[in-house]
Write the structure tokens for this entry.
Amino acid sequence: MASQDPRPDLLSLVPEELDTILTRHFEARGEPAYRAGQVRHWIYESGVPSFDEMTNIPLSGREALAEAFRLEAPEAETISRSRDRTAKHLWRLADGELVESVLIPSWDRLTLCISSQAGCAMGCTFCATGWGGFGRQLTAGEIAAQYRGSRAWAEAEGYGPVTNVVFMGMGEPLANRKAVHPVLSILNRGFGLGARKITVSTVGVVPGILELAERPEQFGLAISLHAPESELRASLIPLEQRHPLPQLLDALRTFRDAGGRRITFEYTMIRGINDDERLAPLLAELAHEFHAFVNLIPFNPIPDQDWVASTPERLEYFRSTLEAGGVACQVRQPRGRDIDAACGQLRANALVQLDEESRPRARARVPDAAGG
Ligand code: SF4
């Protein structure tokens, strides 16, 4: 359960609401209007976890802020750093739920992968998060706090600024649209990340894709495709039964026609499951229609599942077929394997250590995909 604290969480507010609520607060106290700008600056430009550390606000002002508001700042339960410098935070939320975010450095960027739900209800058969079951929706502040906390850590540790954010951690972001829509605004207009540097990843929540297409900002969209045919896809992604591939592709056409937006297809390669040679040209055809970039991802083993990754030769076959079909693609090298940095892996490993009875939730169900 999210925090029962009645004080509004300033990190959950979109920037315009934040300005209004702070301006009113300082006006009511007879304090100068510029104080609102000072607090806004602390929230978006710094990583200070509490009002106490907003040192250019007088002590009485800080106390009044803490009385009226709160600032979501989950504790880092663990921080693991991989040999390849991938760094993973496991955040403990106020009610004890655990969520992950992962910093992935590459030569020209620092990508932060954030979670939108504690666990996930979608039940995709190849996914560690799906295996662990659903906890609850995260609030906008709990999602934004992963960015704020990770950014502060990255800057202190010499990783430099976070340049890109992907909603590819735990959860299906478009099943938590009530929180994810404001977070997109907070990241873009509050923290100042360009919309094209922010990517929402979905297994195909069609109403959510259509909502994103209606937004004026050009956020990126990554589709967890994993199969170019409906029947096979349904065996991997239960949501396919609710929003079958033809419907998903129609939504993607609307998204594409909204203009200037990037679409990526994610394709996890599982040996003998979805890597038959005949599927490669079908994938190429789909990706070509949407000018989609394709990430081919070698499967990362999860608990209670004996699937393994496709062979390097089969990955190469898919890659070269896509390229021959005019599709930009890459085989995504696994990052942070030594720290279990794949989606939901750390939480899954924490859960597997619990015995069956104390495991918090049963295996996933397919939720109402309208979500949020
Ligand atoms: S792949 Fe994404 S939507 Fe599917 S179970 Fe994992 S986190 Fe949920």
